[in-house]
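Technical note accompanying the year-one report. For the benefit of new consortium partners, we illustrate the data format agreed upon in the data management plan: each record pairs a sequence with a C-alpha coordinate string. No post-processing was applied to the example shown here.
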Amino acid sequence: MRKIILSALVGTCLFSSFTTVVDASWLSKAWGRLENSLDTVNTDAPPSVDRKNYNVGHLLPKEDMKIAGVPLGATFPEIKASLGNPQYETNDTLQYGGIKYHRDIYLYRDYRVDRIIVTNRDATTARGIAVGDTLKQVIAAYGQPDFIYKDYYFYGYQKAGSDYINGIYFTHDGKRVTRISITS
Protein backbone atom coordinates (compact mmCIF):
# COMPACT_ATOMS: atom_id res chain seq x y z
CA MET A 1 0.00 0.00 0.00
CA ARG A 2 2.86 2.34 0.83
CA LYS A 3 4.42 1.67 -2.57
CA ILE A 4 1.18 2.50 -4.34
CA ILE A 5 0.72 5.76 -2.40
CA LEU A 6 4.36 6.71 -2.88
CA SER A 7 4.14 5.92 -6.63
CA ALA A 8 0.94 7.98 -6.93
CA LEU A 9 2.56 10.89 -5.06
CA VAL A 10 5.70 10.81 -7.27
CA GLY A 11 3.53 10.50 -10.41
CA THR A 12 1.41 13.48 -9.33
CA CYS A 13 4.50 15.58 -8.70
CA LEU A 14 5.98 14.70 -12.07
CA PHE A 15 2.70 15.34 -13.85
CA SER A 16 2.16 18.67 -12.10
CA SER A 17 5.70 19.82 -12.97
CA PHE A 18 5.12 18.86 -16.61
CA THR A 19 1.86 20.82 -16.66
CA THR A 20 3.61 23.87 -15.18
CA VAL A 21 6.19 23.86 -17.97
CA VAL A 22 3.47 23.68 -20.60
CA ASP A 23 1.51 26.47 -18.87
CA ALA A 24 4.63 28.67 -18.68
CA SER A 25 5.25 28.19 -22.39
CA TRP A 26 1.62 29.01 -23.20
CA LEU A 27 1.76 32.04 -20.92
CA SER A 28 4.93 33.42 -22.50
CA LYS A 29 3.43 33.06 -25.99
CA ALA A 30 0.22 34.77 -24.89
CA TRP A 31 2.24 37.55 -23.27
CA GLY A 32 4.20 38.06 -26.50
CA ARG A 33 0.96 38.35 -28.48
CA LEU A 34 -0.37 40.86 -25.95
CA GLU A 35 2.79 42.99 -26.15
CA ASN A 36 2.60 42.99 -29.96
CA SER A 37 -1.05 44.01 -29.92
CA LEU A 38 -0.29 46.87 -27.53
CA ASP A 39 2.37 48.21 -29.91
CA THR A 40 -0.16 48.41 -32.76
CA VAL A 41 -2.12 51.64 -32.59
CA ASN A 42 -5.45 52.42 -34.17
CA THR A 43 -6.15 56.10 -34.84
CA ASP A 44 -9.21 58.09 -35.77
CA ALA A 45 -7.28 60.48 -38.03
CA PRO A 46 -8.12 60.38 -41.72
CA PRO A 47 -5.76 58.13 -43.69
CA SER A 48 -5.97 60.46 -46.65
CA VAL A 49 -7.29 63.91 -47.35
CA ASP A 50 -7.50 65.78 -50.63
CA ARG A 51 -4.61 68.10 -49.79
CA LYS A 52 -5.01 69.94 -53.08
CA ASN A 53 -8.40 71.32 -52.06
CA TYR A 54 -8.35 71.31 -48.24
CA ASN A 55 -5.95 72.60 -45.60
CA VAL A 56 -4.71 69.85 -43.30
CA GLY A 57 -3.97 70.15 -39.59
CA HIS A 58 -2.89 73.03 -37.42
CA LEU A 59 0.28 74.98 -36.68
CA LEU A 60 2.37 73.50 -33.88
CA PRO A 61 3.83 75.74 -31.16
CA LYS A 62 7.35 77.05 -31.88
CA GLU A 63 8.66 75.00 -28.94
CA ASP A 64 7.83 71.82 -30.90
CA MET A 65 9.81 72.90 -33.94
CA LYS A 66 13.32 72.27 -32.66
CA ILE A 67 15.79 69.46 -31.98
CA ALA A 68 18.69 69.60 -29.50
CA GLY A 69 17.69 73.17 -28.67
CA VAL A 70 18.09 74.34 -32.28
CA PRO A 71 14.88 75.70 -33.85
CA LEU A 72 13.86 75.87 -37.47
CA GLY A 73 15.03 79.20 -38.85
CA ALA A 74 18.45 79.09 -37.16
CA THR A 75 21.57 79.92 -39.16
CA PHE A 76 24.60 77.66 -39.41
CA PRO A 77 26.77 80.03 -37.33
CA GLU A 78 24.09 79.97 -34.59
CA ILE A 79 24.03 76.15 -34.65
CA LYS A 80 27.82 75.92 -34.45
CA ALA A 81 27.85 78.37 -31.54
CA SER A 82 25.31 76.19 -29.74
CA LEU A 83 26.49 72.64 -30.61
CA GLY A 84 30.12 73.13 -31.62
CA ASN A 85 31.77 71.86 -34.78
CA PRO A 86 29.72 69.31 -36.74
CA GLN A 87 30.91 65.84 -37.68
CA TYR A 88 30.02 66.54 -41.30
CA GLU A 89 29.32 69.77 -43.18
CA THR A 90 28.29 70.72 -46.71
CA ASN A 91 27.00 73.96 -48.17
CA ASP A 92 23.44 73.06 -47.13
CA THR A 93 23.84 70.48 -44.30
CA LEU A 94 25.32 70.23 -40.82
CA GLN A 95 25.40 66.77 -39.24
CA TYR A 96 25.84 65.95 -35.56
CA GLY A 97 25.61 62.15 -35.20
CA GLY A 98 22.10 61.15 -36.24
CA ILE A 99 20.89 64.77 -36.46
CA LYS A 100 21.03 66.66 -39.76
CA TYR A 101 20.21 70.36 -40.10
CA HIS A 102 19.35 71.36 -43.68
CA ARG A 103 19.16 74.97 -44.80
CA ASP A 104 17.33 76.48 -47.72
CA ILE A 105 19.84 77.80 -50.23
CA TYR A 106 17.78 77.45 -53.39
CA LEU A 107 14.17 78.62 -53.02
CA TYR A 108 14.37 81.68 -50.78
CA ARG A 109 18.15 81.92 -50.40
CA ASP A 110 17.84 83.04 -46.80
CA TYR A 111 20.27 80.32 -45.66
CA ARG A 112 18.23 79.39 -42.59
CA VAL A 113 17.44 75.87 -41.40
CA ASP A 114 14.18 74.72 -42.95
CA ARG A 115 14.43 71.01 -42.14
CA ILE A 116 15.81 68.91 -39.28
CA ILE A 117 16.09 65.13 -39.62
CA VAL A 118 16.81 62.66 -36.79
CA THR A 119 17.74 59.08 -37.74
CA ASN A 120 18.81 57.59 -34.40
CA ARG A 121 18.34 58.10 -30.66
CA ASP A 122 20.83 61.01 -30.48
CA ALA A 123 17.98 63.46 -29.83
CA THR A 124 14.32 63.71 -28.92
CA THR A 125 11.56 66.06 -29.93
CA ALA A 126 10.47 68.75 -27.49
CA ARG A 127 7.82 66.33 -26.22
CA GLY A 128 10.33 63.53 -25.64
CA ILE A 129 9.81 61.27 -28.68
CA ALA A 130 12.92 59.61 -30.15
CA VAL A 131 13.67 57.20 -32.97
CA GLY A 132 12.76 53.72 -31.68
CA ASP A 133 9.76 54.85 -29.63
CA THR A 134 6.41 53.16 -30.30
CA LEU A 135 3.53 54.75 -32.19
CA LYS A 136 1.56 54.47 -28.97
CA GLN A 137 4.12 56.79 -27.32
CA VAL A 138 3.85 59.25 -30.23
CA ILE A 139 0.06 59.41 -29.89
CA ALA A 140 0.33 59.79 -26.11
CA ALA A 141 2.64 62.80 -26.60
CA TYR A 142 1.00 64.46 -29.64
CA GLY A 143 -2.56 63.13 -29.83
CA GLN A 144 -4.16 61.89 -33.03
CA PRO A 145 -2.12 62.67 -36.19
CA ASP A 146 -3.32 65.42 -38.51
CA PHE A 147 -2.52 63.20 -41.50
CA ILE A 148 -1.65 59.52 -41.82
CA TYR A 149 0.13 57.95 -44.74
CA LYS A 150 1.25 54.32 -45.02
CA ASP A 151 4.66 54.91 -43.44
CA TYR A 152 4.36 58.18 -41.50
CA TYR A 153 2.25 60.20 -39.11
CA PHE A 154 2.17 63.96 -39.70
CA TYR A 155 1.52 66.59 -37.05
CA GLY A 156 1.29 70.17 -38.26
CA TYR A 157 -0.16 72.24 -41.08
CA GLN A 158 -0.26 71.75 -44.85
CA LYS A 159 -1.80 74.54 -46.93
CA ALA A 160 -4.17 73.39 -49.66
CA GLY A 161 -2.82 73.43 -53.20
CA SER A 162 0.66 74.63 -52.23
CA ASP A 163 4.04 73.42 -51.07
CA TYR A 164 3.63 75.10 -47.66
CA ILE A 165 4.16 72.46 -44.98
CA ASN A 166 5.05 73.17 -41.37
CA GLY A 167 5.20 70.25 -38.99
CA ILE A 168 6.68 66.98 -37.82
CA TYR A 169 6.77 63.69 -39.71
CA PHE A 170 7.20 60.50 -37.69
CA THR A 171 8.25 57.86 -40.23
CA HIS A 172 7.63 54.35 -38.89
CA ASP A 173 7.82 50.64 -39.67
CA GLY A 174 4.29 49.93 -38.45
CA LYS A 175 5.22 49.80 -34.76
CA ARG A 176 8.18 52.08 -34.05
CA VAL A 177 9.49 55.45 -35.18
CA THR A 178 12.37 55.06 -37.66
CA ARG A 179 12.94 58.72 -38.51
CA ILE A 180 11.79 62.16 -37.36
CA SER A 181 11.62 65.12 -39.75
CA ILE A 182 10.74 68.64 -38.71
CA THR A 183 10.11 70.91 -41.68
CA SER A 184 8.83 74.29 -42.68
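Partners are asked to follow this layout when depositing records. The longest helix spans residues 2-39.
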